[in-house]
Design goal:
binds adenosine monophosphate, six-stranded mixed beta sheet, Molybdopterin biosynthesis moea protein, domain 2, binds magnesium ion, single chain
Length: 411
C-alpha cells in the first residue's frame, strides 16, 4: 500500500519530519522506575513538591547568625550563646545582643534574620566583634525559595537529566512514572557483508553499520534487538520484517534501500505496509524509506556508513524523540568561517564533515575533515561537526561563512 505522501521526488528534511510527525503516535504506556534507573528516561507524569524546598530557613555560609536590629553603624559586639550545626539546630531563641555560631545548611535560630561570614568577624571567647554596617538579611536561604510545596517540581514529558534526579531526590521522591521503553529491532542487508572474526572472501566487507547503529541506539529509553545480517533475498527480508513488526515499535534496516537490482527494501515495504516517503534531498543519505508495517514504524536507511549516521541523526532521532513524547530540539547550529574549499552541487542539502574550533577572537573557524565520500569513515572519525550546506548552495570558497552543527554525544 502506498499513501498520498509517497512520491518519487526528493523531499527536504523539514517535509520528512513533518510527515513523520503526522504519522507517529507517541507511546502511551508507562511504567514506574526508581531514581537509579531513571536517568534519560522520559518522565510521563508531572511531579509536585511534597514540601517546601528548602523546608526551613538556613545559612548559606559558615558564620554567625544574629538579628539585624542589633546592627550598629560602627563596629559592635554580640555574645555567642550557642551553635547551630547542619543537622543539629540551636534550639533556643536569640535575645537582643546575642548571636549564634552557625554552619552552612544549619537551621537559622529563632530571633535571627541575618548571617555574617566568619571571615568578617573576630571572636574572643564568646564575644564576637562585628564590623560596622554589616548587611541585614544576608546569607540566608529562605523556606520554599527553590520550590514551594505543591508547586510543579518537574513538568512532563521530560527527559530526566542528572540534575532532575537530584531535584527529585531532594524532595524525597524515589519512584517516578516514565514512558515505557521503545522496542527497536535493527538489521543489515547485503550479500557482501561478513561478520567480524571471519576472513573476508573476495568482494566482502565487514558489517560496520550494525555496530554504529547499536551504539547510536544505546539509550535507556530503548530496548534494542540486533537481528543480524539478512542476505539480499526478497523472501528473507520480507519474512524478517513481518516477524519483527509483531513485537517491535520500530524497525531500522541499513542497505538495500536504493534502486539497484539487489535493493528490495522499498519494494517490500510497499507490498507489506505503507511507504510514507522514500528519497531525501540530502547528502549523504538520499535513499531513506519511512513507512509502517502494521503498527510498527519502519526506517530503511541507506547502506553507506556515513549515510546511516547522518540519516539516523537528522531523521530517526527526532522520530524516536517524538515516539517518547519529547518535543524536538532544533539542532544547535552556528556560523563559522570556512577555511577549506568545499565542493558542492546545487540540489541536495549537504552534511559535510568538518572540524570546528574557536579562534582567539572568539569566532569559529571550520575546516573540512577530509574526503567526503559516504563510505569514508576515517574522515568522519576525525570530525567534530557537520558543515550544513543548503540545497541551493554550490562550491564554497575559503573565507566564506558556513553553518556548522556540532556532533552529538556519541559521535
Ligand atoms: P546498498 O544501499 O545496499 O547498495 O549499499 C551501499 C553501500 O554501502 C555499498 O557499498 C555497501 O557495500 C555498503 N554497505 C551496506 N551495508 C553495509 C554495512 N552493514 N556495513 C558497511 N557497509 C555497508
Ligand atoms: Mg546492498
Amino acid at each position: 500500500m502506498t499513501n498520498q505522501c509517497y512520491s518519487n521526488s526528493l523531499i527536504s528534511i523539514k517535509d520528512a519530519l513533518d510527515n513523520i510527525k503526522a504519522a507517529l503516535s507517541p507511546i502511551e504506556e508507562e511504567e514506574t522506575v526508581n531514581l537509579h534507573e531513571a536517568l534519560n528516561r522520559t518522565l510521563a507524569q508531572p511531579c509536585t513538591a511534597p514540601f517546601h524546598l528548602p523546608a526551613f530557613p538556613n545559612s548559606s555560609m559558615d558564620g554567625y547568625a544574629f538579628n539585624s536590629a542589633d546592627i550598629k553603624s560602627t563596629p559592635f559586639t554580640l555574645e555567642q550563646v550557642g551553635i547551630s550545626w547542619a543537622g543539629k539546630p540551636f534550639t533556643g531563641e536569640l535575645l537582643a545582643g546575642q548571636c549564634v555560631r552557625i554552619f552552612t545548611g544549619a537551621v537559622l535560630p529563632k530571633g535571627a534574620d541575618s548571617v555574617v561570614m566568619q571571615e568578617h568577624v573576630t571572636a574572643s571567647d564568646q564575644i564576637i566583634h562585628f564590623p560596622g554596617n554589616v548587611q541585614a538579611t544576608q546569607n540566608i536561604r529562605y523556606i520554599g525559595e527553590d520550590v514551594r510545596q505543591d508547586d510543579c517540581l518537574l513538568a512532563a514529558p521530560k527527559q530526566l537529566s542528572a540534575i532532575d534526579l537530584g531535584l527529585l531526590a531532594s524532595a524525597g521522591i524515589y519512584e517516578v512514572r516514565v514512558k515505557r521503553r521503545i522496542r527497536i529491532a535493527f538489521f543489515s542487508t547485503g550479500d557482501e557483508l561478513s561478520a567480524i572474526g571471519n576472513p573476508l572472501a573476495a568482494g566482502q566487507i565487514y558489517d560496520s553499520n550494525r555496530y554504529t547503529l547499536a551504539a547510536l541506539l544505546n539509550n535507556p529509553c530503548y530496548t534494542v534487538t540486533d537481528l543480524g545480517v539478512i542476505r539480499d533475498n526478497k523472501a528473507r527480508i520480507h519474512a524478517c520484517l513481518l516477524d519483527a513488526a509483531k513485537s517491535n515499535d520500530v524497525i531500522i534496516s541499513t542497505g538495500g534501500a536504493s534502486v539497484g537490482d539487489a535493493d528490495f527494501i522499498k519494494e517490500i515495504l510497499a507490498e507489506i505496509g505503507q511507504v510514507n516517503f522514500w528519497k531525501l534531498a540530502i547528502k549523504p543519505g538520499k535513499p531513506l524509506a519511512f513507512g509502517r508495517i502494521q503498527a510498527c514504524y519502519f526506517f530503511g536507511l541507506p547502506g553507506n556508513p556515513i549515510s546511516v549516521i547522518a540519516t539516523f541523526q537528522q531523521i530517526v532521532t527526532p522520530a524516536l524523540r517524538q515516539l517518547s513524547s519529547l518535543s524536538n530540539r532544533t539542532p544547535l547550529r552556528f556560523k563559522a568561517i570556512c577555511q577549506s574549499p568545499l565542493r558542492k552541487q546545487a540540489g541536495r542539502q549537504e552534511f559535510q564533515r568538518g572540524i570546528v574550533q574557536q579562534t582567539e577572537n572568539g569566532k569559529f573557524a571550520v575546516i573540512s575533515a577530509g574526503k567526503q565520500g559516504s563510505n569514508i569513515l576515517s574522515a568522519s572519525s576525525r570530525a567534530n561537526c557537520y558543515i550544513v550546506l543548503t540545497r541551493e548552495q554550490t562550491n564554497v570558497e575559503v573565507g566564506t561563512e558556513v553553518l556548522v552543527e556540532p556532533f552529538s554525544l556519541f559521535l
